[in-house]
């Protein structure tokens, strides 16, 4: 058999593709190859890890193939549920061995906040791409270390900003960038939920790195930046604590914060662990507004503008996120709103400034 046809058939290409010009046939081969699916191991099989695993069942470009966990019973249950082979199962002591596993491309770190840095750096050193949950780290200094480690290892560092791929969010962002609201001058971000079990890691400063701000408040910080399309130049913040027993020293219950932007726009935000159903973004400009409520929950997201409601089908956020992240890592696709380590770092710089503003009462400059 002639060598081109032989090559195409060995590569598993369809008869249809054989009739294509050679360059197009090659890209068709690419689409059929197993390595065009991002093979992911999840580290930390908790509540959000489980949500991601379920959502990945519907992914086209990403596949759950491995786990890293400190709980043997969970590993066993996940192996059965998701058909994960024993050779792709690790714990926190031996996951460096993942470097010798050619069947895993990336690790999604979904452990408590203070473990994001050591776990992400461990994954990078094992030569695998890192997807890390928000907040990327406890502070900007840690974030910079993670970026440096991933750069040194030549791997991607992506942050689990699922809203950056959500259809209604992207439509509002598109309208804002097109000037449809005029000059945008005000953003309001309200992010909160009532936290339960007082013994959970989210209320432990060593594991959480703070309180509501580290967990839910980062949505308002991040949202202000992508809704306004600019970076803040100053921050002020105030803390309110109604339950000092539940919310110990260093664990914030409620913080209100304000950010100023180079254009003159201001953001006014609230982060809390003491109010349920608080999930709202509001943007106003010289010509009109956008309102999203819920704005960052698991959806469906609701959005309207002065021109009327925004319609888009609801797709499970984590399904879209993982498919899009696969395209970023495998194809070099550029997302509309970045999800890389530098994006995570921008939020952490603001988190640091908010905590400093709470401590000092001062207006903190970011320039
Ligand atoms: P969970 O407590 O439900 O799960 C965390 C898992 O991490 C545990 O089940 C455990 O898994 C592992 N782990 C390793 N070390 C520890 C430790 N010392 N203490 C507790 N758990 C440990 O938390 P979530 O899944 O809710 O949150 C995990 C991360 O995901 C957080 O950073 C959070 O901010 C983020 N998140 C993001 C969301 C989003 O929408 N993007 C939503 C919810 C959370 P194992 O037993 O397998 O080792």
UniProtKB/TrEMBL annotation:
Presence of the UniProt keyword Kinase in the record: no
Matches recorded under SUPFAM superfamilies: Glyceraldehyde-3-phosphate dehydrogenase-like, C-terminal domain, NAD(P)-binding Rossmann-fold domains
Boundaries of every GFO/IDH/MocA-like oxidoreductase domain copy: 171-290
Stored Pfam families: GFO_IDH_MocA (PF01408), GFO_IDH_MocA_C3 (PF22725)
Protein name: Glucose-fructose oxidoreductase
Keyword annotations: Oxidoreductase
Gene Ontology molecular-function annotations: nucleotide binding; oxidoreductase activity
Family: Belongs to the Gfo/Idh/MocA family.
Xref: InterPro entries: Gfo/Idh/MocA-like_OxRdtase_N (IPR000683), Gfo/Idh/MocA_domain (IPR050984), GFO_IDH_MocA-like_dom (IPR055170), Glc-Fru_OxRdtase_bac (IPR008354), NAD(P)-bd_dom_sf (IPR036291), TAT_signal (IPR006311)
Highest rank taxon of the organism: Bacteria
UniProt keyword annotation of DNA repair present: no
All residue ranges annotated as the Gfo/Idh/MocA-like oxidoreductase N-terminal domain in the record: 38-161
Gene3D superfamilies: Dihydrodipicolinate Reductase, domain 2, NAD(P)-binding Rossmann-like Domain
């Amino acid at each position: 058999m002639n060598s081109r046809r032989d090559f195409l058939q060995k590569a598993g290409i369809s008869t249809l593709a054989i009739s294509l010009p050679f360059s197009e046939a090659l890209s068709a081969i690419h689409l059929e190859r197993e390595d065009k699916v991002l093979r992911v191991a999840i580290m930390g099989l908790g509540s959000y890890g489980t949500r991601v695993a379920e959502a990945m069942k519907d992914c086209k470009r990403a596949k759950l193939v491995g786990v890293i966990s400190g709980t043997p019973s969970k590993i066993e249950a996940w192996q059965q549920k998701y058909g994960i082979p024993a050779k792709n199962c690790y714990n926190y002591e031996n996951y460096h061995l993942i470097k010798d596993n050619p069947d895993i491309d990336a690790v999604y770190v979904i452990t408590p906040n203070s473990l994001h840095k050591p776990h992400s750096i461990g994954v990078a050193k094992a030569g695998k791409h890192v997807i890390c949950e928000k907040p990327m780290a406890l502070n900007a200094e840690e974030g910079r270390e993670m970026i440096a480690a991933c750069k040194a290892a030549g791997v991607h560092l992506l942050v689990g900003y699922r809203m950056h791929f959500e259809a209604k969010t992207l439509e509002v962002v598109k309208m804002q960038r097109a000037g449809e609201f005029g000059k945008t001058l005000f953003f309001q971000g309200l992010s909160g939920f009532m936290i339960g079990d007082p013994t959970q890691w989210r209320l432990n400063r060593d594991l959480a790195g703070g309180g509501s701000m580290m967990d839910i408040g980062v949505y308002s910080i991040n949202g202000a930046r992508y809704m306004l399309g600019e970076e803040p130049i100053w921050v002020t913040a105030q803390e309110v604590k109604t339950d000092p027993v539940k919310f110990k020293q260093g664990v914030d219950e409620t913080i209100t914060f304000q950010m100023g932007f180079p254009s003159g726009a201001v953001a006014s935000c609230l982060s809390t662990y003491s109010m349920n159903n608080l999930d709202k973004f509001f943007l106003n400009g010289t010509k009109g507004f956008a309102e999203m409520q819920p704005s960052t929950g698991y959806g469906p997201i609701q959005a309207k503008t002065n021109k009327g409601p925004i319609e888009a089908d609801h797709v499970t956020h984590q399904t879209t996120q993982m498919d899009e992240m696969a395209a970023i890592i495998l194809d070099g696709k550029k997302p509309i709103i970045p999800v890389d380590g530098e994006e995570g770092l921008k939020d952490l710089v603001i988190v640091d400034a908010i905590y400093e503003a709470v401590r000092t009462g001062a207006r903190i400059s970011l320039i």
